Amino acid sequence: MGRGFRKRLGGKAIASEDTDTFSIFGPFHLTSIDWTNPYHRTSVASSLVNGVYTLEADRLEERVGSEALAKPWWEFFHFTLLETLNDDDSSIYGAIFEYELYNLYENTPHVKVPRYVIAFRGTVLKGKTWKFDLKLDLKCIFNTLHQGNRSMYALNAVRRMVDKHNHSAIWLAGHSLGAALVLLAGKTMTRVGFFLESYIFNPPISSIPLEQLPGGDIIKGVFQIAKSVVKATVAMALTDLQVPIDDPKTASWIPYLYVNPADPICAGYIDYFRHKTFMSEIGASNIERTGARKSVRSLLVGRRGKTLSSDLSSEPLHLLPSADMTVNKNKPTKSTTAHGLHQWWERDSTLRENWESCCIRPYPEDKLEQLTLQ
Protein backbone atom coordinates (compact mmCIF):
# COMPACT_ATOMS: atom_id res chain seq x y z
CA MET A 1 0.00 0.00 0.00
CA GLY A 2 2.34 2.67 -1.22
CA ARG A 3 4.34 4.06 -4.10
CA GLY A 4 6.05 1.73 -6.54
CA PHE A 5 9.73 2.10 -7.30
CA ARG A 6 9.36 1.71 -11.04
CA LYS A 7 6.75 3.43 -13.17
CA ARG A 8 5.97 3.99 -16.80
CA LEU A 9 5.87 7.39 -18.47
CA GLY A 10 5.00 7.86 -22.13
CA GLY A 11 5.10 4.09 -22.64
CA LYS A 12 8.72 3.77 -21.49
CA ALA A 13 9.97 2.28 -18.28
CA ILE A 14 11.74 4.75 -16.04
CA ALA A 15 13.71 4.26 -12.86
CA SER A 16 12.77 5.48 -9.41
CA GLU A 17 15.40 8.25 -9.65
CA ASP A 18 13.36 9.86 -12.45
CA THR A 19 10.06 9.71 -10.55
CA ASP A 20 11.83 11.16 -7.51
CA THR A 21 13.07 14.13 -9.51
CA PHE A 22 10.80 17.10 -8.80
CA SER A 23 11.75 19.01 -11.96
CA ILE A 24 10.51 16.09 -14.06
CA PHE A 25 7.71 14.55 -12.08
CA GLY A 26 6.48 17.16 -9.58
CA PRO A 27 3.94 20.01 -9.75
CA PHE A 28 6.56 22.54 -10.81
CA HIS A 29 3.85 24.49 -12.67
CA LEU A 30 2.66 25.91 -9.32
CA THR A 31 5.13 28.79 -9.16
CA SER A 32 2.96 30.59 -6.59
CA ILE A 33 0.54 29.08 -4.09
CA ASP A 34 -2.99 30.31 -3.58
CA TRP A 35 -3.92 28.79 -0.22
CA THR A 36 -7.60 29.49 -0.87
CA ASN A 37 -7.46 27.12 -3.87
CA PRO A 38 -8.24 23.47 -2.88
CA TYR A 39 -6.18 22.12 -5.78
CA HIS A 40 -3.14 24.09 -4.63
CA ARG A 41 -3.52 22.84 -1.05
CA THR A 42 -3.90 19.29 -2.33
CA SER A 43 -0.81 19.59 -4.52
CA VAL A 44 1.34 20.94 -1.70
CA ALA A 45 0.18 18.30 0.79
CA SER A 46 0.75 15.44 -1.65
CA SER A 47 4.16 16.84 -2.65
CA LEU A 48 5.30 16.91 0.98
CA VAL A 49 4.23 13.28 1.35
CA ASN A 50 6.17 12.45 -1.80
CA GLY A 51 9.11 14.22 -0.21
CA VAL A 52 9.00 11.64 2.59
CA TYR A 53 8.99 8.83 0.02
CA THR A 54 12.01 10.42 -1.63
CA LEU A 55 13.81 10.86 1.69
CA GLU A 56 13.52 7.11 2.22
CA ALA A 57 14.57 6.47 -1.40
CA ASP A 58 17.63 8.69 -0.88
CA ARG A 59 18.49 6.67 2.23
CA LEU A 60 18.04 3.31 0.51
CA GLU A 61 19.93 4.37 -2.64
CA GLU A 62 22.62 6.10 -0.54
CA ARG A 63 22.07 9.34 -2.42
CA VAL A 64 23.70 12.16 -0.46
CA GLY A 65 24.75 15.73 -1.14
CA SER A 66 24.06 16.88 -4.68
CA GLU A 67 22.77 13.41 -5.60
CA ALA A 68 19.93 13.53 -3.04
CA LEU A 69 16.55 14.26 -4.65
CA ALA A 70 14.20 14.92 -1.75
CA LYS A 71 14.72 18.64 -0.96
CA PRO A 72 12.92 20.18 -3.97
CA TRP A 73 9.67 18.47 -2.97
CA TRP A 74 9.34 20.86 -0.04
CA GLU A 75 11.78 23.70 -0.76
CA PHE A 76 9.91 24.59 -3.98
CA PHE A 77 6.90 25.49 -1.80
CA HIS A 78 9.02 27.32 0.80
CA PHE A 79 9.00 24.62 3.45
CA THR A 80 11.89 23.62 5.70
CA LEU A 81 12.52 20.09 6.94
CA LEU A 82 12.52 20.24 10.75
CA GLU A 83 12.71 16.57 11.59
CA THR A 84 12.55 13.11 10.05
CA LEU A 85 10.55 10.38 11.79
CA ASN A 86 12.35 7.04 11.85
CA ASP A 87 11.23 3.51 12.61
CA ASP A 88 13.14 0.85 14.53
CA ASP A 89 14.87 -0.26 11.32
CA SER A 90 16.07 3.35 10.75
CA SER A 91 13.70 3.74 7.79
CA ILE A 92 12.17 7.20 7.33
CA TYR A 93 8.37 6.90 7.49
CA GLY A 94 7.50 10.53 8.16
CA ALA A 95 8.75 14.09 8.41
CA ILE A 96 7.82 17.41 10.02
CA PHE A 97 7.95 20.47 7.76
CA GLU A 98 7.67 24.18 8.63
CA TYR A 99 6.27 26.76 6.22
CA GLU A 100 8.75 29.63 5.94
CA LEU A 101 6.15 32.21 4.84
CA TYR A 102 3.60 31.51 7.56
CA ASN A 103 4.11 34.91 9.19
CA LEU A 104 2.83 36.62 6.04
CA TYR A 105 -0.63 35.16 6.72
CA GLU A 106 -0.96 35.90 10.42
CA ASN A 107 -3.41 38.74 9.69
CA THR A 108 -5.54 36.64 7.34
CA PRO A 109 -7.28 34.15 9.65
CA HIS A 110 -9.85 33.31 6.96
CA VAL A 111 -7.12 31.71 4.81
CA LYS A 112 -6.08 28.14 5.63
CA VAL A 113 -2.30 28.13 5.89
CA PRO A 114 -0.19 25.55 7.73
CA ARG A 115 2.71 26.47 9.91
CA TYR A 116 3.71 22.84 10.31
CA VAL A 117 2.88 19.78 8.21
CA ILE A 118 3.47 16.28 9.53
CA ALA A 119 3.60 13.93 6.55
CA PHE A 120 3.69 10.13 6.37
CA ARG A 121 4.62 7.92 3.42
CA GLY A 122 3.08 4.61 2.44
CA THR A 123 4.64 1.21 1.82
CA VAL A 124 8.07 1.01 0.22
CA LEU A 125 8.85 -2.36 -1.35
CA LYS A 126 12.60 -2.12 -1.36
CA GLY A 127 15.56 -2.98 0.86
CA LYS A 128 14.68 -4.08 4.37
CA THR A 129 11.97 -1.46 4.59
CA TRP A 130 9.36 -3.70 2.99
CA LYS A 131 9.33 -6.12 5.94
CA PHE A 132 8.27 -3.48 8.45
CA ASP A 133 5.86 -1.88 6.02
CA LEU A 134 4.08 -5.11 5.06
CA LYS A 135 3.59 -5.97 8.73
CA LEU A 136 1.80 -2.66 9.15
CA ASP A 137 -0.24 -3.29 6.00
CA LEU A 138 -1.51 -6.48 7.64
CA LYS A 139 -2.34 -4.51 10.79
CA CYS A 140 -4.49 -2.23 8.64
CA ILE A 141 -6.37 -5.24 7.28
CA PHE A 142 -6.99 -6.64 10.76
CA ASN A 143 -7.70 -3.25 12.34
CA THR A 144 -4.74 -3.41 14.72
CA LEU A 145 -2.71 -0.50 13.38
CA HIS A 146 -2.90 1.17 16.79
CA GLN A 147 -0.61 -1.61 18.03
CA GLY A 148 3.05 -1.38 17.14
CA ASN A 149 5.97 1.00 17.50
CA ARG A 150 5.54 3.08 14.35
CA SER A 151 1.98 4.03 15.26
CA MET A 152 3.13 4.91 18.78
CA TYR A 153 6.03 6.99 17.42
CA ALA A 154 3.74 8.79 14.97
CA LEU A 155 1.15 9.59 17.65
CA ASN A 156 3.85 10.84 20.00
CA ALA A 157 5.25 13.13 17.29
CA VAL A 158 1.80 14.60 16.61
CA ARG A 159 1.07 15.05 20.33
CA ARG A 160 4.43 16.72 20.85
CA MET A 161 3.74 19.25 18.10
CA VAL A 162 0.23 19.94 19.37
CA ASP A 163 1.54 20.47 22.90
CA LYS A 164 4.13 23.00 21.68
CA HIS A 165 2.16 24.86 19.01
CA ASN A 166 -1.28 26.09 18.03
CA HIS A 167 -3.06 22.98 16.74
CA SER A 168 -4.99 24.99 14.14
CA ALA A 169 -1.69 25.63 12.32
CA ILE A 170 -0.70 21.95 12.23
CA TRP A 171 -1.66 19.85 9.22
CA LEU A 172 -1.41 16.11 8.71
CA ALA A 173 -0.88 14.43 5.34
CA GLY A 174 -0.35 10.82 4.33
CA HIS A 175 -0.64 8.36 1.47
CA SER A 176 -1.81 4.72 1.67
CA LEU A 177 -0.25 3.24 4.82
CA GLY A 178 0.70 6.80 5.78
CA ALA A 179 -2.94 7.81 5.25
CA ALA A 180 -3.94 5.17 7.78
CA LEU A 181 -1.51 6.74 10.27
CA VAL A 182 -3.13 10.13 9.64
CA LEU A 183 -6.56 8.63 10.29
CA LEU A 184 -5.32 7.10 13.53
CA ALA A 185 -3.59 10.28 14.68
CA GLY A 186 -6.40 12.57 13.55
CA LYS A 187 -9.12 10.57 15.27
CA THR A 188 -7.02 10.23 18.42
CA MET A 189 -6.39 13.96 18.66
CA THR A 190 -10.03 14.72 17.88
CA ARG A 191 -11.15 12.70 20.88
CA VAL A 192 -9.20 15.10 23.12
CA GLY A 193 -10.50 18.23 21.39
CA PHE A 194 -7.86 19.00 18.75
CA PHE A 195 -9.11 19.11 15.17
CA LEU A 196 -6.15 18.86 12.81
CA GLU A 197 -6.47 19.72 9.14
CA SER A 198 -5.80 16.40 7.41
CA TYR A 199 -5.13 15.35 3.81
CA ILE A 200 -5.59 11.62 3.37
CA PHE A 201 -4.59 10.12 0.02
CA ASN A 202 -5.70 6.61 -1.04
CA PRO A 203 -6.36 5.39 2.51
CA PRO A 204 -6.74 1.63 2.97
CA ILE A 205 -10.13 0.31 4.04
CA SER A 206 -10.65 -3.19 5.41
CA SER A 207 -13.79 -4.06 3.48
CA ILE A 208 -14.81 -5.78 0.25
CA PRO A 209 -14.27 -3.24 -2.59
CA LEU A 210 -17.74 -3.40 -4.10
CA GLU A 211 -16.68 -0.89 -6.75
CA GLN A 212 -14.50 -3.66 -8.19
CA LEU A 213 -17.21 -6.34 -8.26
CA PRO A 214 -19.38 -7.16 -11.28
CA GLY A 215 -23.12 -6.62 -11.01
CA GLY A 216 -25.47 -3.74 -10.66
CA ASP A 217 -25.93 -1.25 -7.88
CA ILE A 218 -28.91 -3.24 -6.59
CA ILE A 219 -26.73 -6.26 -5.79
CA LYS A 220 -24.16 -4.06 -4.11
CA GLY A 221 -26.85 -2.26 -2.12
CA VAL A 222 -28.44 -5.48 -0.92
CA PHE A 223 -25.05 -6.79 0.18
CA GLN A 224 -24.31 -3.63 2.14
CA ILE A 225 -27.70 -3.59 3.86
CA ALA A 226 -27.45 -7.28 4.76
CA LYS A 227 -23.95 -6.76 6.16
CA SER A 228 -25.10 -3.81 8.28
CA VAL A 229 -28.09 -5.71 9.66
CA VAL A 230 -26.06 -8.80 10.56
CA LYS A 231 -23.23 -6.83 12.15
CA ALA A 232 -25.65 -4.57 14.02
CA THR A 233 -27.58 -7.55 15.38
CA VAL A 234 -24.43 -9.28 16.62
CA ALA A 235 -22.95 -6.03 17.99
CA MET A 236 -26.11 -5.14 19.90
CA ALA A 237 -26.34 -8.66 21.29
CA LEU A 238 -22.81 -8.34 22.63
CA THR A 239 -23.41 -4.91 24.16
CA ASP A 240 -26.74 -5.48 25.88
CA LEU A 241 -28.74 -3.94 23.00
CA GLN A 242 -27.10 -0.54 23.42
CA VAL A 243 -27.23 1.62 20.30
CA PRO A 244 -23.98 3.64 20.03
CA ILE A 245 -24.09 7.41 19.64
CA ASP A 246 -21.60 9.17 17.42
CA ASP A 247 -19.12 11.28 19.35
CA PRO A 248 -19.94 14.90 18.42
CA LYS A 249 -16.22 15.70 18.53
CA THR A 250 -15.46 13.07 15.90
CA ALA A 251 -18.28 14.38 13.72
CA SER A 252 -16.71 17.85 13.90
CA TRP A 253 -13.44 16.61 12.42
CA ILE A 254 -13.72 16.84 8.63
CA PRO A 255 -10.68 15.29 6.94
CA TYR A 256 -10.04 15.55 3.21
CA LEU A 257 -10.13 12.11 1.61
CA TYR A 258 -8.79 11.40 -1.87
CA VAL A 259 -9.84 8.13 -3.50
CA ASN A 260 -9.95 6.49 -6.90
CA PRO A 261 -12.75 4.00 -7.73
CA ALA A 262 -10.26 1.90 -9.72
CA ASP A 263 -8.04 1.48 -6.65
CA PRO A 264 -9.16 -1.60 -4.66
CA ILE A 265 -7.24 -0.38 -1.62
CA CYS A 266 -9.33 2.76 -1.10
CA ALA A 267 -12.41 2.34 -3.34
CA GLY A 268 -14.42 0.95 -0.43
CA TYR A 269 -14.77 4.47 0.97
CA ILE A 270 -17.09 5.33 -1.91
CA ASP A 271 -19.47 2.51 -1.00
CA TYR A 272 -19.06 3.23 2.71
CA PHE A 273 -20.30 6.81 2.40
CA ARG A 274 -22.88 5.99 -0.26
CA HIS A 275 -24.34 3.30 2.01
CA LYS A 276 -24.18 5.60 5.02
CA THR A 277 -26.19 8.22 3.15
CA PHE A 278 -28.73 5.69 1.85
CA MET A 279 -29.35 4.23 5.31
CA SER A 280 -29.94 7.76 6.59
CA GLU A 281 -32.47 8.39 3.83
CA ILE A 282 -34.54 5.33 4.75
CA GLY A 283 -34.38 6.05 8.48
CA ALA A 284 -31.99 3.23 9.32
CA SER A 285 -29.06 5.26 10.64
CA ASN A 286 -29.03 3.36 13.94
CA ILE A 287 -28.56 0.04 12.13
CA GLU A 288 -25.81 1.44 9.92
CA ARG A 289 -24.04 3.17 12.81
CA THR A 290 -24.18 0.10 15.06
CA GLY A 291 -22.94 -2.24 12.35
CA ALA A 292 -20.20 0.08 11.14
CA ARG A 293 -18.81 0.74 14.60
CA LYS A 294 -17.74 -2.87 15.08
CA SER A 295 -15.14 -4.52 12.89
CA VAL A 296 -15.59 -8.13 11.86
CA ARG A 297 -12.49 -8.98 13.89
CA SER A 298 -13.90 -7.46 17.08
CA LEU A 299 -17.15 -9.37 16.63
CA LEU A 300 -15.32 -12.66 16.06
CA VAL A 301 -13.15 -12.14 19.12
CA GLY A 302 -16.29 -11.69 21.15
CA ARG A 303 -16.98 -9.80 24.30
CA ARG A 304 -13.97 -9.38 26.54
CA GLY A 305 -15.50 -6.73 28.68
CA LYS A 306 -17.31 -3.60 27.64
CA THR A 307 -15.49 -0.95 25.67
CA LEU A 308 -16.18 2.74 25.55
CA SER A 309 -17.57 4.31 22.39
CA SER A 310 -14.39 6.37 22.23
CA ASP A 311 -12.13 3.31 22.19
CA LEU A 312 -10.50 3.44 18.76
CA SER A 313 -9.22 -0.13 19.11
CA SER A 314 -12.77 -1.53 18.95
CA GLU A 315 -13.90 0.23 15.77
CA PRO A 316 -12.71 0.13 12.14
CA LEU A 317 -10.19 2.83 11.38
CA HIS A 318 -12.24 4.05 8.41
CA LEU A 319 -15.27 4.89 10.59
CA LEU A 320 -15.93 8.59 9.87
CA PRO A 321 -19.15 10.55 10.42
CA SER A 322 -17.88 13.48 8.32
CA ALA A 323 -15.52 13.98 5.40
CA ASP A 324 -14.77 16.00 2.29
CA MET A 325 -14.06 13.32 -0.29
CA THR A 326 -12.51 13.87 -3.71
CA VAL A 327 -13.00 11.03 -6.21
CA ASN A 328 -10.70 10.84 -9.22
CA LYS A 329 -12.88 9.25 -11.90
CA ASN A 330 -10.15 9.26 -14.56
CA LYS A 331 -9.15 5.81 -15.74
CA PRO A 332 -5.53 4.80 -15.07
CA THR A 333 -3.14 5.31 -17.99
CA LYS A 334 0.41 4.26 -18.77
CA SER A 335 1.74 7.22 -16.82
CA THR A 336 -0.69 7.09 -13.90
CA THR A 337 -1.93 4.42 -11.52
CA ALA A 338 -5.14 4.32 -9.53
CA HIS A 339 -3.19 4.06 -6.26
CA GLY A 340 -0.47 6.53 -7.20
CA LEU A 341 0.15 9.64 -5.15
CA HIS A 342 1.16 11.64 -8.22
CA GLN A 343 -2.42 11.72 -9.53
CA TRP A 344 -3.29 14.31 -6.88
CA TRP A 345 -1.09 17.04 -8.36
CA GLU A 346 -2.43 16.37 -11.87
CA ARG A 347 -1.21 19.19 -14.10
CA ASP A 348 -3.84 18.68 -16.83
CA SER A 349 -6.86 20.83 -15.95
CA THR A 350 -9.11 18.84 -18.29
CA LEU A 351 -8.38 15.69 -16.33
CA ARG A 352 -9.04 17.50 -13.06
CA GLU A 353 -12.56 18.18 -14.32
CA ASN A 354 -13.21 14.48 -13.69
CA TRP A 355 -12.51 14.91 -10.00
CA GLU A 356 -15.78 14.82 -8.11
CA SER A 357 -16.27 16.33 -4.65
CA CYS A 358 -18.58 14.68 -2.13
CA CYS A 359 -19.34 16.35 1.20
CA ILE A 360 -20.64 14.16 4.01
CA ARG A 361 -22.03 15.93 7.05
CA PRO A 362 -24.33 14.64 9.79
CA TYR A 363 -27.42 16.81 10.03
CA PRO A 364 -29.80 17.13 12.99
CA GLU A 365 -32.16 14.17 13.37
CA ASP A 366 -29.56 11.84 11.84
CA LYS A 367 -29.95 13.22 8.32
CA LEU A 368 -26.88 13.27 6.08
CA GLU A 369 -25.98 15.59 3.27
CA GLN A 370 -26.54 13.89 -0.08
CA LEU A 371 -23.71 12.30 -1.99
CA THR A 372 -23.52 13.55 -5.56
CA LEU A 373 -21.44 10.60 -6.73
CA GLN A 374 -23.11 8.58 -9.47
From TrEMBL:
Protein name, entry field: Predicted protein
GO biological process: lipid metabolic process
Gene3D superfamilies named in the record: alpha/beta hydrolase (3.40.50.1820)
Domain Fungal lipase-type: 119-191
Highest taxon in the source lineage: Eukaryota
GO molecular function, one term: hydrolase activity
Pfam families reported in the protein's UniProt record: Lipase_3 (PF01764)
Organism whose genome encodes this protein: Arabidopsis lyrata subsp. lyrata
The entry's keywords: Hydrolase
The keyword Hydrolase appears for this protein: yes
InterPro entries membership: AB_hydrolase_fold, Fungal_lipase-type
Coiled coil (residue ranges): none
